[in-house]
Design brief:
Elements (H helix, E strand, L loop, with lengths): L11 E2 L9 E6 L3 E6 L4 E5 L5 H13 L3 H9 L5 E2 L21
Antiparallel strand pairs: 1-2, 2-3, 3-4, 4-5
């Protein structure tokens, strides 16, 4: 994200061979990579979190157009620096966990 203007970086369409990847597009940044997923979320990964080694591998996979979603799920998980999409500013949803027993 450009801190001076508050705008998102320019995203490139991810290879997505076979339409199975969860990754829609990506943006290569000086300090990391921003990844837009099919659910609309945009996550920023940088040298601080999850680390320079992971970020460089993620950039290489993004350029190749294959394996980025798998790498994130297997090696990085929820370790991202920040969330850039609009839903990041929404309050957390409260889910009612009580069971509806009327239909038993």
């Amino acid at each position: 994200m450009d801190t001076a203007t508050g705008q998102l970086p320019r995203f490139r369409r991810y290879g997505n061979h076979g339409n199975r990847a969860g990754v829609e597009s990506y943006a290569l940044l000086a300090r990391g990579i921003a990844v837009r997923f099919h659910d609309g979320s945009i996550l920023l990964y940088d040298r601080d979190c999850p680390g320079a080694q992971h970020v460089e591998r993620m950039k290489a996979l993004a350029r190749a157009g294959s394996g980025l979603g798998t790498y994130i799920s297997r090696h990085v998980g929820r370790r991202y620096a920040s969330r850039l999409d609009a839903s990041a500013n929404e309050p957390a949803r409260r889910y009612d966990t009580r069971q509806n027993t009327a239909f038993r």
